[in-house]
Amino acid sequence: MDFDDDAGLDASQVEDARGTPFGGMAIGGGAIGLIALVAAVLFGVNPGNLLGGGGGGSGSAPPAGNLSSKCRTGADADQADDCRIVGVVNSVQAYWKKEFTDRGKTYTVARTRLFSGSTSTACGTASSAVGPFYCPGDKRVYLDLGFFQELHDKFGAKGGPFAQAYVVAHEYGHHVQDLLGTMDRVGDDRQGASSASVRLELQADCYAGVWARHAVQTGFFDKPFTDGDIAEALDAAGAVGDDRIQQRARGRVDPESFTHGTAGQRRHWFSTGYDTGEPPRCATFSGRI
Predict the structure, then answer these.
(1) Is residue 288 part of a domain?
(2) Host domain of residue 192
(3) What are the φ and ψ backbone dihedral angles of 221, each rounded to 5 degrees?
(4) How many domains are contained in the chain?
(5) pLDDT tens, per residue, the chain with 289 residues
(6) Which of 1, 146, 227, 240 has the smallest set of CB atoms within 10 Å of its CB?
(7) d(Cα 244, Cα 231) in Å, to the nearest integer?
(8) Is position 6 within any domain?
(9) What is this structure's pTM?
(10) How far apart are CA 48 and CA 119, in angstroms?
(11) Is residue 258 part of a domain?
């Protein structure tokens, strides 16, 4: 994955709150922390739901660090993880803004907040253990860059720059669902192999694939992604399938408790988005998945 060296980055779309103390942890070690890690590391939508609700955060943003002096061009994005996230966020949102405009809709920009340790959100107070997530309450994506090492060490993913891009694009898929009202379809149907929760997550995977198909057209990359890049995304998607997570954690698989889909389903729907490049083909809420 190579950025166009001359592409201009908009660092205002990413807040750097790393090292900022938040306190008031809603989760911790022991069983609760393990449950949150196993469940939310699958790119859950709302950590407040996973942590038993609770409005630990008001949704107001703390003073954010300024990445604008560091992350200016695509060349910077090729050199540093945080600048890479800026570049991917810019590209993903450029794609969806055009897609919404072409369909007569309005896309609202969602910022990503980089944090470490813990962070306060409109969905509650969360620790790094919950992994990346999108909070519809304040329309932000939250990400601790240390998650990518966890993805490799704890879940067996090979990692790589495009694995990181897939994670970001998946979370912005949830933002798209939020804007379109798709999240409202989940309701209380949050567990089971064919649940609305699983369908929501698989659609976000598909939306990530759609962006990947069109990413070079956003002007942030100098050439289409390689087969190796796409393989990184498929590997990361498979590593966090419900069946893989459950087998690793408990030694058995329970489809009745699925929330995100199997490894095969996650790979399939990312591929569907990438192969077709058409958001309407991400129709996970109809038919078999």
Answers:
(1) no
(2) 11-281
(3) -120, 145
(4) 1
(5) 999 999 999 999 999 999 876 532 222 223 223 333 334 434 443 444 444 343 333 333 434 467 999 999 999 999 999 999 999 999 999 999 999 999 999 999 999 999 998 899 999 988 888 889 999 999 999 999 988 888 888 888 898 999 999 999 999 999 999 999 999 999 999 999 999 999 999 999 999 999 999 999 999 999 999 999 999 999 999 999 999 999 988 999 999 999 999 999 999 999 999 999 999 999 999 999 9
(6) 227
(7) 18
(8) no
(9) 0.86
(10) 12
(11) yes
